[in-house]
Amino acid sequence: xxxxxxxxxxxxxxxxxxxxxxxxxxxxxxxxxxxxxxxxxxxxxxxxxxxxxxxxxxxxxxxxxxxxxxxxxxxxxxxxxxxxxxxxxxxxxxxxxxxxxxxxxxxxxxxxxxxxxxxxxxxxxxxxxxxxxxxxxxxxxxxxxxxxxxxxxxxxxxxxxxxxxxxxxxxxxxxxxxxxxxxxxxxxxxxxxxxxxxxxxxxxxxxxxxxxxxxxxxxxxxxxxxxxxxxxxxxxxxxxxxxxxxxxxxxxxxxxxxxxxxxxxxxxxxxxxxxxxxxxxxxxxxxxxxxxxxxxxxxxxxxxxxxxxxxxxxxxxxxxxxxxxxxxxxxxxxxxxxxxxxxxxxxxxxxxxxxxxxxxxxxxxxxxxxxxxxxxxxxxxxxxxxxxxxxxxxxxxxxxxxxxxxxxxxxxxxxxxxxxxxxxxxxxxxxxxxxxxxxxxxxxxxxxxxxxxxxxx
Length: 457
What we know:
This protein is an alpha+beta fold. The chain has 13 helices and 15 strands.
């Protein structure tokens, strides 16, 4: 039975030798069409005008040679439905006329459309990446902080900004080409092993504390911090150099500033914002999370720029701080400037119990301990069940069911990410609230515990 259904054409049309329709039949995949309206009409009048010549050629080939080549046309059904159909025709013999059998190409057309959309998305992402790269290059060149990029393989200098060049060459030193030279050659013998140990810890643990190195012609002392970057040329180390004079001055200042130095060395990201979310101060760990080389490109920017759901998470965070003065740990995601994403746990406190003017926020990377396999396995199980139905129904029905499974899965994921907030879920999925309500009802999810913005905790 299943093989019969699988081999049954979507459209079967019996014609006379002139191409006039005698009778027609449809497969169960196309329903609700009164084909009696076609009887007695030339077949060419039932398709879009640009396909009528192809049909006439198909009829002529079948009448003259017994079988025709395949032709694709847009078939117009009596209800007004238009479907892309691929036809071939066969001569029946004698006065029996011809029979044309057609196969719907709607599923193929939808896949082609999705492929084009995916290609356009890739192109937009490419230009966004170019824009980010240009902005990064401007920040890299104009930053007053010394920044050096090293190749992971061999530790050769990939690039450095003018401030780093001055640090290595010295203000009165002869100019020399640094790009391509091994950075290890710039280190004194007693500090080379210390530098390599820092990089080894960075590779193993994802972060490493800064170390003191003596660099340049005058062997000035610099505090050096390292992080990893991904690029088209491969992985790179990003070194940030801070003159120790600034550190010494900070250590001799007030206790509050001394505490800032301790926070700078924390492996967790830390940010201080004002009451509207503009960043006033960050530590190096947060710069690593958002993939920014220096604090210059972060200060006075909205923290919401790097949150996965800027409108939802940032609004909830600030509203809770204004009301309670503190936020207990909750999960979100940070988006880096170079496209990286990090699952983080946020906790925050204000300088006052209510309506604080300054807010301190910790970001802890918890991506390695947050398995998301349950949802992936559930989706895989649903799709595997559809795979087992191949041969038991038309391709179009299987494709529609697969699309429904994916749509339901992503709606469930979005509801989970927004903690049931329907408005935030609709924004996250690019839907109107009404469209989301319709889909929730279609999948029997309209009775789930979901909230509107006014009821969100």
